[in-house]
C-alpha cells in the first residue's frame, strides 16, 4: 500500500472527499484515503477496477466498500444506497470487479423530451467507504464514467488517425470515383478486457444491413475504404449508405455508425463570360473565367469568330465542342460524357443563338502538387455552355454566356453510364 508522506497534503485530499452534512469528522485524525485509478468503457464488464490506497505510517486499510450514492443535493453529497461490492485489498492497493455494477445498458437518455433508461453509456454515482486499522473511516464520492467501446478516429496534424472524434469526418464520396476515402475506428478497453471481434455492416438508403465484404476487421484500430468496399453495381448516384461497426467483448457490444452520401458527380459553380468581335473581349479562357485581347492570346482557350461563333484559340489548346440538347440545369457529368462520346466533335462553332447549349471536353496540364514539389498531370474535364444573349450592333457582334465545368472520376473497369440524379 502507498504510505502517507505529507499529512497536510493528505488532509486536503480527505477534505475533498465528500461526507454527509451531519458528519463531524476531524480530517487530521483519519488514517488514509482511497481513490479510483482508472476509467472504463462499456466493454469492461469483467474488469478489476483499481483503487489507490493512501495511509499514514503504521496504518493499513482494513475494509473498502463500494456503494451506490443516492445523494440528490449538494448539501448532502453522500447518501449510501445499495452496496455494490467489497473491494479486494492487496499490498498494492485495492480493486473491485465491474461485474458487480448495475447494467451497462440502462443509463438515462432523453429523446424528444422523453427520458428512458436505454442508454449504453453514462455514469454511476458511487460512494467509497474505507475503514483503517486505527479505527478511522473515510467516505468519498466517485462518479464512474462508462464510455464508448468503439470510437471514430480522424487524422491529426501529422496525418495519423489519432484524434478521437464524435463523427467519422466523411459526409460524402463521389459516385463511381475510385479514389480511396477512409474512415478510421478504434476499440476502447482496459488491458484485461478481451475484444472478440469487430464486424462491419452497411445498408443502402432504408434497406437491411448486410455484412461488409472482405477480410475480418482488426480488433484494435482499423480503417475502411468506404468508397470502394461495396460493389458499385449495388449503388446509384445520390444513394445514402450507412456504415456500422460493432465491437464484441464477451457478452458486451458497442457500435458506431455513419451515413455517407454517394454523391452524383455534377458540374461546378456557374461562371459568366463574354466573347465579341471587340479586341478586348475577343478571346476567353474557361479555366480562368476571363476575357483576353489579342496581345494576351497565350492565356486564351477560345476566340470569337464572325457569325456569332467561336473556335479553339490555338493548335496546342486541347478542346473540342458539341452542340447539344442536354438540359443545362440538370445534366450531370456522366450524362455529359455519354453525350459527348456519342456526338461528332468539332473545334469551331458558328451561328450560336440565345438558349443554345454547347458541350465541350478540355484537357489541361495542371500542377497537382505544390510550387516546391510540382506534380504536372493531364486533367480532362467536361463543360456546359449556355448562350444567354446574342447582341448585334451596326458593326459589332457579342455572345454572352454562362458555363460550368467538372472533372469526372470513374472506376476504370466500369463502362461509361448515363445515371439519373434522382434516387
Describe this structure in a few short sentences:
With 423 residues, the protein is mainly beta.
Total domain count: 3
Low-confidence stretches: 1-27, 413-423
Q: Please, what is the average pLDDT?
A: 89
Total number of β-strand segments?
A: 31
Helix content: under 10%
- Main sheet specs: 5 strands, mixed
What is the tally of helical segments? Answer: 2
Bin the strand percentage. Answer: over 45%
What structural category arises from helix and sheet content? mainly beta
Shape field: elongated
Radius of gyration: 34 Å
Distance between the termini: 65 Å
Could you characterize what this model shows?
The chain has 423 residues and is mainly beta. It has 3 domains: 31-147, Immunoglobulin-like, CATH 2.60.40; 150-263, Immunoglobulin-like; 269-407, no CATH class. The chain is built from 2 helices and 31 strands. It has helices spanning 7-16, 333-342, and strands at 2-3, 32-36, 40-41, 48-55, 61-69, 80-86, 88-90, 93-97, 107-111, 114-119, 122-132, 137-147, 150-155, 161-165, 172-174, 182-187, 197-204, 210-211, 221-225, 239-249, 252-263, 271-276, 283-285, 290-292, 302-305, 309-312, 318-324, 348-349, 357-367, 376-392, 397-406. A hairpin with a 2-residue loop joins β9 (107-111) and β10 (114-119). The longest helix is centred in the first third of the chain and has 10 residues, at 7-16. Mean pLDDT is 89; it is low at 1-27 and 413-423.
